[in-house]
Design goal:
With 475 residues, this protein is of the alpha+beta class. The protein has a five-stranded antiparallel beta sheet with strand order 14-13-12-9-15. A five-stranded antiparallel beta sheet has the order 21-20-19-16-22, with no helix packed on it. A four-stranded antiparallel beta sheet has the order 5-6-8-7. InterPro entries: DD-CPase-like, SH3-like_bac-type, SH3-like_dom_sf, VanY-like_core_dom, VanY/YodJ_core_dom, Zn_M74/Hedgehog-like. This is SH3b domain-containing protein. One of its GO terms (molecular function) is peptidase activity.
Length: 475
């Protein structure tokens, strides 16, 4: 059977108001219903998996706008942008006026439902964000710090449009378990009605660049927040079809390339039920990110990231693995009988072997640690300052086989230098309730007092963390 010659396919599709409300910016209720859309498509170049094309949404880069888009790849410009802010009702937390009004309205609605939202953190200046990021970098290292804190100039808090919220009793403050608390559940379900969205969702770290933060909400305006919610997108990056990582990282993480065999729709997710971001012309080369799902590939094209059907990709090529460079042999210390070693850098002690385990404390550079056992995957079990944990052998030097165990570099706390909590107590980054919550210390736990009292607050140490707590709840 001979192939028919090129022909013109005329397709008329009437789009319902509901579809427009979901995929396009909201229109006034009084506006007339959209007229039928007529689309002329040449058969050989028929767009794959959809007959109706909808223009990709443009991201807002003006920092003065409520819908400004900010992430690691799209920093604020100017980087030290400072908006005008106002204090929200009943708190010294500040937001941009539009966001503050929306938050006050949301908090009032929650209160009617018997849920009391507490504002934890709002606007942060460029300099304040720099202080926080540098603090986390000193404690955890830059890689992990970048997962939990924004590089100065890329923080949504700097826009005055982002707020961290919590429960009035401090339960699960700034922790993943917050999502299952009364406030966490209420804001997760209702925030979009007031123009807010949860910005860093669960399982989206590879997209947003940040760990799951069910307490962090971003104000977009009611119309956009509702559109985002109804789209089913799990991140603003997916909603707009952009990346959350820097251009340098994008290239580094690419897993290969492929070429389109037809005009191919890029979508927000794997499947035709997801929104179209753009149409990639036939014969174009796309970058494969390495993610594949149900026959769909995640790709990058024209600064956008999305999903395309693998049926219409050809010449898929994956980069060959680089040959391992031969390393010059270097003398290694004899650690088989080592009893102690010194740190060659500020070194995190963790609960297990590998960087995925929780940090117990950070051992300063040049400190001696006691080695408690055999090395495992390049990590050593050690004791320091009365704590046991694991450290990377990469940062240990001066191994000693002395039979004498090193003395602890820190004196034991006397009874006068420690106190017990009489309630679940927030440890904060400074003296006062306006400071960021580091963690919540359970009732009845002992804390070490590190210095003198300040305005009724004590500098303390608990679970390897340093911070400030109110003396009202110490005995």
């Amino acid at each position: 059977m001979t192939k028919p010659s090129a022909f013109t396919l005329s397709l008329t599709a009437t789009l319902s108001a509901a579809l427009f409300a979901t995929l396009l910016p909201a229109t006034p209720a009084a506006a007339a219903a959209p007229a039928p859309v007529s689309i002329q498509v040449q058969a050989p170049a028929l767009s794959v998996d959809a007959s109706v094309q909808i223009a990709a949404k443009k991201i807002q880069r003006n920092p003065a706008k409520d819908d400004v888009f900010v992430n690691k790849k799209y920093p604020l410009s100017p980087k030290k942008y400072a908006p005008k802010t106002v204090a929200i009702q009943g708190s010294n937390v500040r937001l941009r006026s539009s966001a503050a009004k929306a938050y006050n309205k949301m908090a009032k609605a929650a209160a009617k439902d018997g849920v009391k939202i507490r504002a934890v953190s709002g606007y942060r200046s460029y300099n304040r964000q720099a202080e926080l990021f540098n603090y986390y970098t000193r404690i955890y290292g830059k890689s992990y710090a970048s997962r939990i804190s924004a590089v100065p100039g890329t923080s949504e808090h700097q826009t005055g449009l982002a707020i961290d919220v919590g429960n009035a009793n401090g339960a699960c403050g700034l922790q993943a378990c917050f999502a299952n608390t009364p406030v966490g559940k209420w804001v997760g379900k209702n925030s979009h009605k007031y123009g807010f969205i949860m910005r860093y969702g669960k399982g989206q770290e590879s997209v947003t660049g940040y760990s799951y933060e069910p307490w962090h909400f971003r104000y977009l305006g009611t119309s956009l927040a509702k559109s985002y919610k109804s789209s089913g997108a799990k991140s603003l990056e997916a909603y707009y079809g952009v990346s959350g990582s820097s251009p340098k990282n994008n290239t580094k993480n690419a897993k290969g390339t492929a070429r389109t065999t037809a005009n191919l729709n890029m979508r927000t997710g794997a499947g035709t039920g997801n929104r179209v971001l753009l149409t990639i012309p036939r014969g174009k080369s796309v970058q494969l990110t390495g993610s594949k799902k149900s026959g769909w590939y995640q790709v990058r094209y024209s600064s956008r990231t999305g999903w395309v059907s693998g049926k219409y990709l050809s010449s898929i090529s994956m980069p060959s693995k680089p040959k391992k460079e031969s390393k010059k042999s270097t003398p290694k210390p004899n650690t088989s009988n080592a009893k102690s070693a010194k740190t060659s850098a500020n070194l995190n002690m963790r609960t297990g072997v590998g960087t995925s385990h929780r940090v117990v404390l950070t051992i300063p550079q040049g400190k001696k640690v006691a080695i408690r056992g055999a090395k495992k995957s390049g990590w050593y079990p050690v004791n320091y300052a009365g704590k046991n944990g694991w450290v990377s052998g990469t940062y240990l030097r001066s191994f000693s086989s002395s039979t004498h165990s090193p003395k602890s570099s820190e004196p034991k706390s006397s009874s006068s230098a420690s106190k017990k909590t009489i309630a679940n107590l927030n440890m904060r980054s400074g003296a006062g309730t306006s400071k960021r919550v580091i963690l919540t210390i359970p009732k009845g736990k002992k804390v070490s007092i590190r210095g003198t009292k300040k305005s009724g607050w004590y500098p303390v140490k608990y679970a390897g963390k340093n911070g400030w707590v109110s003396g009202k709840y110490l005995r």
